[in-house]
Amino acid sequence: MAAPTITSATLNKSTFAPGETMILTVVGADADEELIEITLTVRNQTSGASGVPVVVTTILDELQAVATDSESRTWTQIARTGATFVLTGIA
Amino acid sequence: MATVTVRLRNRASGALSAPVSAQYQVGINHGQQLTRTNVGPVGTLRPSGPVVTTRDGQVFENLDITGSLDVRHNVTLVNCQIVGDLDVGNAAYTIKHQRDLGRRLVLRNCRIVTRSPNTKGLVSWGNGQTDATDTLFLGGTDNTYLKPGTAPSTGYAHTFTRCWFGDVQRTPGSHSDCVQVDGGAGGVLLDRCSINSFSLATGEDPTTAEASVDSRASGGLILTYPSSNPDPIRRIRVVNSYFDGGNYTLDTAPPDGPNPTDVVLAGNTFGLHHTYGPLRTGPGQSRQDNNWAESGVTTTGRRVVAGQPVD
Fold first, then answer.
1. What is the 3-state secondary structure (H, E, C) of B82-109?
2. Pick from B11, B10, B2, B5: which is nearest to A26 by CA?
3. Rounded Cα gap, residues B117 and B48, in angstroms
4. Distance between CA B70 and CA B79 in Å, rounded?
5. Which pTM value belongs to this model?
6. B21 to chain A: which residues are within 8 Å by CB?
7. Which residue in chain B is spatially nearest to A16 when comparing CA positions?
8. How far is CA B57 from CA B54, B73, B133, B278, in A?
């Protein structure tokens, strides 16, 4: 079992107005995380006819980004694209 | 400076990455953003005559009190208005802390309107304590007049948070201030308040009129001493507030008594209007990050830039 790693964590700004949305972008990975692909085909047993295969992907051992804040603000992961995780908090 | 610390966590195994941190700052929410209408009571209020408190723990909610509040117990007012009577005399304070009872008054989202230039709004000369938040203080020769007596075990005798002060009234020769501390060591804290030291024209009623910036009052917050009993002033903290108007807008250097100690003035912003200057302090008092709120030419002819120190 490998530990996840973070290569960068970047805020969109260094100073925020009270009430402003803060965006934290995190880039990282985990060797244990696996992207798998499932291919599904529907076949009529009587006629033998098959539909077009449908492919879906999912992640095994999925990663999530969790954050704590020195001033008790709440940070929530709102998106992920590949190795990039996006969290937001309110200033 | 705040810090957010993030980790990646494998949902299945629970394995965590090493933490990575990023630092950020959140700007100060100065009192400049307060107005006469974005603090104070909302909704329908029930009419009431003058109130004399009768027991500790009383809570008055959604009242429109005509006359005055006589604080004889530890009480709370929530979403209330007190409107003083017209043209009353000097002792007819709109809120009066009885001198040595040491009671605590809590104000939440209230509006205190004094309608006589002969008297004052909130007066506490002794051991009374006040905790006011999101409250307006309008009218009177002084919006508030305090001589904080015994300090509470923690905090300050009088605390004002996100409160708006202004529209003071004058009589010939009067000294009209938003907040006057007349001696006393119990401490006063103003945090994120808006202090607008401008006066109404003679005869104007603070329930209907608003002061012009062309009519400066005497002081925004001023420390003074009574000639008969100059108890040294201690523990004045004014932070993140907005000041404008007056002679010296924020004046913590009384010429008539000992230099006030444990005075902290930090993170305040100042408008362009004053007679002598925005800020006057005594020796050893702490001044940090007190800046002009706007760019322009002050009423004393000084060209200033927003964000620059007022010094």
1. EECCCCCCCCCCCEEECCCCCCEEEEEC
2. B5
3. 23
4. 18
5. 0.76
6. 9
7. B26
8. 9, 8, 18, 40
When the candidates are 3.10.450, 1.10.1060, 3.90.550, 2.160.20, the CATH number that belongs to B2-304 is 2.160.20
Q: What number of other Cβ atoms are within 10 A of residue B50's Cβ?
A: 14
CB contact B4 to A (< 8 Å) = yes
Taking the C-alpha atoms of residue B114 and residue B85, their distance in angstroms, rounded to an integer, is 7
Instruction: Print pLDDT tens along chain B (311 aa).
Output: 889 999 999 988 999 999 999 999 887 778 888 999 999 999 999 999 999 999 999 999 999 999 999 999 999 999 999 999 998 998 999 999 988 898 999 999 999 999 999 999 999 988 999 999 999 999 999 999 999 987 777 789 999 999 999 999 998 888 999 999 999 999 999 999 999 999 999 999 999 999 999 999 999 999 999 877 788 999 999 999 999 999 999 999 998 899 999 999 999 999 999 999 999 999 999 999 999 999 999 999 999 999 899 97
- Phi/psi of residue B76, each to 5°? -130, 135
Across the interface, whether the CB atoms of A14 and B23 are under 8 A apart is answered: yes
- B60-to-A65, B115, B124, B138 alpha-carbon distances in Å: 47, 22, 20, 20
How many residues in chain B? Answer: 311
Assess contact for B14 and B37: CB atoms under 8 A.
Answer: no
